[in-house]
Design goal:
Keywords: Membrane, Transmembrane, Transmembrane helix. This protein is mainly α and 83 residues long. The chain contains three helices and no strands.
């Protein structure tokens, strides 16, 4: 069927994996779950579910990244005060 272009929601799977390994494990795992939901919804053409899951995955990734940065700053501050 030509002419049918449906929007594909971004999965953020790579970002989710990075956050799981480097920033915040629980939020990263949740982001991976939602990223997989986006992939599945995109595959079957359910753009509403894909868009909602994509938005949730993005928000989880942002929160995980911020938590990782805050934890890194706290860790560096603690190390600097020990010397």
């Amino acid at each position: 069927m030509e002419g049918q272009n449906r929007a594909v929601a971004p999965t953020y799977l790579g970002w989710s994996i990075f956050n799981t390994l480097c920033c915040c494990l629980p939020l990263g795992i949740a982001a991976i779950v939602y990223s997989c939901r986006v992939q599945n919804a995109n595959a079957v053409g359910d753009s509403t579910v894909a868009t909602d899951a994509s938005r949730t995955a993005k928000m989880l990734n942002i929160i995980a990244l911020v938590c990782g940065i805050i934890l890194l700053i706290i860790f560096i501050a603690l190390k600097a005060t020990q010397q």
